[in-house]
Amino acid sequence: MNRSAMREQAFKLIYSLEIQKSKNIEEQIETYIESNEITDKNAIEYIKDMILGIEQNINNIINEIEKNLKSDWKIDRISKIDLSILKIAIYEIEIKKLPYKVVINEAVELAKRYGEESSKNFVNGILASIVSENFGQES
Fold it and tell me: Which of 19, 71, 107, 123 fits as disulfide partner to 89, beta carbons 3.0 to 4.6 Å?
């Protein structure tokens, strides 16, 4: 399984966790991996790292999103799909230190595939703002 496919699986799990608001995340990860018949060891490791890493850094991630919203927006207004995509992208940019151009591109692709019409622009705008603020560069 390539990284894009692994990222997409992680996104689907994060989205389902966002909807369910489950407390036992590790159990949810195992259930997801089992029910989706994911056997690739690298994919399992990637998904676990992503979900648990986001959970460990959730306050920082949410803070980054809130800082980069327009002043009249609140985080509750963001669709669960867009929020899930942003969590993955911010985790990969800020914690995993992956190249932001790749991460933003992948995030926009997920937004196109799963989000609303405006999702790709919204996700791109938030991530570009974060990159500009943290790295002094435009995406």
Answer: 107
Tokens read off for 133: 């603020």
pTM of the model: 0.92
Q: Is the pLDDT of residue 139 over 60?
A: no
Amino acid in position 49: D
Q: What is the pLDDT of residues 15-30, one digit of tens each?
A: 999 888 767 899 999 9
Ordered alpha helix ranges (H), 21-79: 25-35, 41-56, 58-67
H/E segment holding residue 131: helix 119-135
Going by C-alpha positions, the residue among 85, 74, 83, 69 that lies closest to residue 130 is: 69
Domains of the chain, each with CATH number or no CATH: 3-135 (1.10.940.10)
Sign of the dihedral defined by the CA atoms of residues 101, 115, 14, 10, in that order: negative
- Spatial separation of the C-alpha atoms in residues 10 and 17, rounded to whole Å: 10
